Every structure is written in C-alpha cells, then in structure tokens.
Amino acid sequence: MKIQQQDYNISVLIIEDDVRIAEINRRLVEKVPGFQVIGIATDEQQAKDQLDILSPDLVLLDIYFPDMNGLDFLQVINSDYQETNVIMITASREINSVKEALRSGVFDFIVKPLVFERLKNSLEKYQEFRSKLRKIQNENHNVNQEEIDELLARIGQKEQLTPYLPKGIDKITLQKVTEVLNQTPEGLNAEGLAKKIGISRPTARRYLEYLVAKEQISADLSYGEVGRPERIYRKK
C-alpha cells in the first residue's frame, strides 16, 4: 500500500501488518509538523520494495509479522538502507526484544497502544537530531566532543524524553507544585499547597498524590489538635 509522496522535510515509512493500526499511526505522525508518511507496508516484500523506491528518512517498525520478525528486518535496514533510521512501535514488552533493538541502533522503542504525546516527543527529538546532523555535515568538518554529546542526547544519554503526563496533570502546574515543595522543607498538606498556588484542594491533592506515586516526594500522617490525621507531603 503506497501513499503519495509530498514535499515534506522528513519522510516516514510505516511497516505494520495491521492496516487499521497503520492508518491510525499515519494520522498521528502527520499531526506533527514536518513529517509526512510516504508509504505503508504490511509485509516483508512490500517493505523491501518501498524502501528501495522511496528511500524514507525514518521507518516506524513493528516486531510481529506473519511472514517475518521485525528485529530481523531491522538488521536488513541497517545493512542495506543505512541512511534510514528506525523507531520501533510494537506490543512486545520482552526485555530481550528491547535489548536487541537498542543494540541494533533504533532511535526509539515505543510500546503499544501508542500514546500521541509519546510519539510526538520522539518525532520531535528525531527532527532535532537530524537538524544537528545536517548542520554538521553541511559545515564539512570533523565533529568535536560537544557535537558528539548533542547527537548522543537523542537516545537519552544527556537528557531524558519528557515523560507522558496522565489526564488531569498539567506540566506547568506540576512545576509550580514541585517548586513550592522544594521551598518548603517542613512539608505541606493539600490545603496549604492549594492556598500557595491558587488551586482547589482536590486539585492540589491530585498533584501531590501523583508525585508520591512517582516516588518524587514522600507523604506522612500528622495528627492535629483534635486528633484528625492529615497527610503532609515533603520533598525526599
């Protein structure tokens, strides 16, 4: 199955045997500015043909196919299509699959079901990586350590991907909550935090419990004058 190619900065080939999932992934990719899906391949022969014809910049590759293993096909891409990068998008959660994919140089490994914000983060990191690489190539000089470090940052050695935040947790509010806790070593309850930031008590508790679940802060019980316990949250 081939999709008409357009003039976009980064061309993407989706290799996925489930046509419905492939179409969903195509729509998600094309919501990110600067990316265009130029083909969808559902089996090994289609994948090879479209790699030969389209020469995509990036492949989104599954592992499980009726006629091939995506990890084996990854080796084919590395050997025969060295200008193409790969992001694995798969239901596989086996540690050996993850290790093999990383050893084979995939740009990223994303587990299904696909979350758009996680995909968007990965594609933007890839876009940044290609921009840096193209800049170095255009300048036509040997790379220095700083430039190498910037390129390596794409896989998390220098910086981590922005974590996906669940529904009801806003990045800016979360930063405010963290800042207040950092500035309050004695700790706060949900009501105290709510007053400092200007949010409701239930909202404050939601953010605090999220940080507790992420093991970024601790929560202890404190008993007031009438013996009613309340949770006090502190930075670890």
Give the topology string: H per helix, E per strand. Answer: EHEHEHEHEHHHHHEE
The end-to-end distance, rounded to whole angstroms, is 53 Å
Given the structure, what is the number of helices?
Answer: 9
Can you give the helix content as a percent range? 40-55%
- The fraction of residues assigned to DSSP E strands is 15-25%
**Overall pLDDT:** 86
Main sheet properties: 5 strands, parallel
Output the radius of gyration.
23 Å
Shape: elongated
Uncertain regions: pLDDT < 50 for 5+ in a row?
1-7, 155-162
Which strands sit side by side, in order, in the main sheet? 2-1-3-4-5
Question: Structural class from helices and strands?
Answer: alpha/beta
What is the strand tally?
Answer: 7
